[in-house]
Amino acid sequence: MLSRQQFRQQIRHTRQQLSASFQHQASLNLIKQFAHLPELPSANHIALYLTADGEIDTQPLIEWLWQQGKHVYLPVIHPFSKGHLLFLHYQPGTPMVLNQYRIAEPKLNQLLIRPINQLDIICTPLVGFDSTGHRLGMGGGYYDRTLAPWFRDHRGPKPIGLAHDCQHVDKLPVEAWDVPLSKIVTPSKIWQWECHG
Prior knowledge:
Radius of gyration: 16 Å
Strand order of the largest sheet: 3-2-1-6-9-10-11
Number of domains: 1
Number of helices: 4
CATH topology: Rossmann fold
Shape: globular
CATH superfamily: NagB/RpiA/CoA transferase-like
Number of strands: 11
Mean pLDDT: 93
Order of helices and strands: HHEHEEEEEEEHEEE
Strand content: 15-25%
Distance between the termini: 25 Å
CATH class: Alpha Beta
Structural class: alpha/beta
């Protein structure tokens, strides 16, 4: 089996080769799948993320959620708690800054922070996922730490992964701290597994 780092490099390379027109169509198909989530009608506070590194484009989904009257939140790297995320309310016109990874995030404003346990859905980025719902992240562990309390007691926000179909592999090498997902949405389908843990 490939190592985690080899999987990461291979899948990122595949993702980065996708054409702009393919990416655009994939982002529209993602909305169609997302709209079928049974959690969506009652979810008013949804965390998303801005796309980087060939990830599936989330901007059309964000704009569609705004049209549905949903509140959207974006992750901000916690300034004091190393390796953790805050989620800030995101609207058109929200002041943005680049974080240490050169990814745009809302400028830190305490008035815009929403506690994680008050979010309904947290959409997580991922590099790859396998047939049991394990996700391979970028290696920073931010989402594993953020999702760990949900994984323990299944309360709080519902974590849902977003990915291109080409990011699926049969089996990933798994570490003890990895938080598997019970749902991942791709342009072609909603993947679901029994709740882990």
